[in-house]
Structure to design on (288 residues):
């Protein structure tokens, strides 16, 4: 008598049927099996190999949709190299490959077919990326110290993010950078070009935080002034290392003078009861 098999006790990886031919899984005893789109099934020996072959095929199809719709997506997830996708899949876990599929799928949902919307979307995102790069250039020129996803000189990064995000998100991204720059005005040359130019300010260097993590706060308050007293208050600049008593250090220049000056406060520096005094008043050609 032919023994029946309980198929797909566990499904390893499921894609929409419009994008694949076969489904892989295990029987009731845990042996790997494959269910084909024609209704037949059989055992197979290497679930990772077959799963990754399937992942690579779907990735290439998704890339083809990206090209045919002129979405413009690029980067690691987007290419026509089946071997690349296969090798990447083998090197990572199931969760990572599922996320890769979902990331492409979600991006394609934001780039529908038909009409002239794609060209308009590309033009919008080119303009967004151009503006973002320009805003970052202003950030660097003014030495504001802004950093993170919003602040990069990489045009492609901004362009691809815009294609993936919605119009409201890109408008918000532009406004966030614009508002930040308004809080960090261009440095003026006060006192014959000797105004303060903050290079970096760090709250919690002794606790292992990123150098320059609070630069824009004091730069906004002191840049361009001949003298500036600044009170450090964690309620205003944030607490980058909870539970650790943090020091405070600031480095600055005076106008075109290449010399860098520094002021520091010992821990705990951010309780609002300690201040640093930055001075660029010249006396006999020297700076205090």
């Amino acid at each position: 008598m032919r023994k029946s098999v309980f198929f797909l006790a566990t499904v390893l990886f499921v894609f929409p049927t419009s994008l694949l031919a076969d489904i892989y899984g295990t029987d009731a005893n845990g042996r790997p099996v494959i269910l084909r789109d024609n209704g037949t099934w059989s055992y197979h020996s290497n679930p990772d190999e077959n799963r990754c072959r399937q992942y690579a095929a779907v990735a290439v199809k998704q890339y083809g949709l990206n090209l045919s719709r002129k979405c413009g997506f690029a980067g690691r997830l987007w290419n026509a190299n089946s071997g690349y996708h296969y090798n990447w899949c083998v090197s990572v876990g199931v969760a990572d490959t599922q996320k890769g599929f979902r990331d492409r799928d979600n991006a394609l949902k934001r780039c529908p077919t038909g009409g002239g919307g794609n060209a308009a979307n590309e033009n919008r995102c080119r303009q967004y990326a151009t503006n973002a790069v320009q805003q970052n250039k202003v950030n660097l020129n003014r030495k504001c110290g802004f950093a993170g996803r919003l602040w990069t000189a990489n045009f492609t990064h901004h362009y691809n993010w815009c294609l993936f995000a919605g119009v409201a998100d890109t408008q918000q991204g532009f406004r966030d950078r614009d508002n930040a720059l308004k809080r960090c005005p261009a440095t003026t040359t006060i006192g014959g070009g000797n105004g303060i130019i903050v290079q970096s300010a760090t709250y919690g260097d002794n606790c292992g935080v990123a150098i320059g993590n609070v630069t824009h706060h004091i730069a906004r308050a002191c840049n361009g002034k001949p003298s500036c007293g600044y009170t450090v208050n964690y309620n205003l600049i944030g607490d980058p290392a909870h539970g650790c008593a943090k020091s405070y250090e600031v480095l600055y220049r005076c106008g075109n003078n290449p010399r860098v000056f520094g002021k520091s406060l010992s821990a705990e520096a951010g309780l609002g009861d300690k201040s640093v005094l930055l001075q660029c008043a010249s006396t006999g050609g020297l700076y205090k």
User: Anything to note?
Assistant: The first helix runs from residue 47 to 68.
